[in-house]
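User: Sorry, what's this?
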Amino acid sequence: MSQEVIRGIALPPPAQAGDPLASVDTPSLVLDLAAFEANLRAMQAWADRHEVALRPHAKAHKCPEIARRQLALGARGICCQKVSEAVPFVAAGITDIHISNEVVGPAKLRLLAQLARAAKLSVCVDNAANLARISQAMAAAGAEIDVLVEVDVGQGRCGASDDATVLALAQQARDLPGVTFVGLQAYHGSVQHLRTREERAAVCRQAARIAASYQLLLRESGIACDIITGGGTGSAEFDAASGVYTELQAGSYAFMDGDYGANEWDGALAFQNSLFVLSTVMSTPAPDRVILDAGLKSTTAECGPPAIHGAQGLQYAAINDEHGVVRVAPDAQPPALGDTLLLVPSHVDPTFNLHDGLVVYRDGIVQDIWEISARGFSR
């Protein structure tokens, strides 16, 4: 084969605007715009009703176009989980970003300072030495950044967990150049997937009590603490109504997934599946078994295999790198070779990170492809 022919070979996009969904090349990550937009409206309305700000978490999707649409509906800003993850969002003109994590190391702090010159940033701290280094990085770059002390409200991950440390960090941030103490991050990740509303409500009440006690400590010490940020899709119902949280960091609500779908939801705050992996039947080796072209390189399985959307008698039973084994019940109609199926990912965040683009559709017709610009930005 000539070099000229080789140079002319390129992978085309999986679809074009106007294509029917069933013709999209697979495996592809696809978004039902009607369900997505309904989810955005529902969470924004919930936040507005309880007079708290919504700062959706972009780690869920890594896609600036999604963030723009959340901001257009009233979100205050966005969250990113890693400093590198913020780069494509700042480049896209999104300039109010909370790094909801500790940022440690010279390279990361230099990048943080560069971004802080271009956008309004905030960052979490739970260590005095790290806070001092953030201050030094900001001073060296001529930048300013807001600081939130992360407190452990029960997850047992990052965060200060005693009065003395919380107070000392807030005082240190108040006194250092280049940083401004603005409040607390009080996120409880484990509560998000407790199945019953009663379980989630009880844990959320305790988390809010812990956060409120630290806020009172700071105020009684003469330190303003105006922001308490946290909350996720599974806890937003309770965090918004707590009277303690001022911001919600939910992200998966826009899409939902199998793990969140297993939760019990209040009818007043419930969300639809909008995100799917479109997959093609690539083999029909037996009447009770068909094979899909979407495996671990298209959807993750740490929370279980994906579910097959809108199909009776079909179970995604086994997952390999590039194959999905679907069992067909005796009374079910097996899909034919070349048929496409919609899969509900079990965990939305890492599934987004497997794809370069998101095929968005309305009423079964492709509208656009949105770039997942922060895919792989995990430093």
The mean pLDDT is 98.
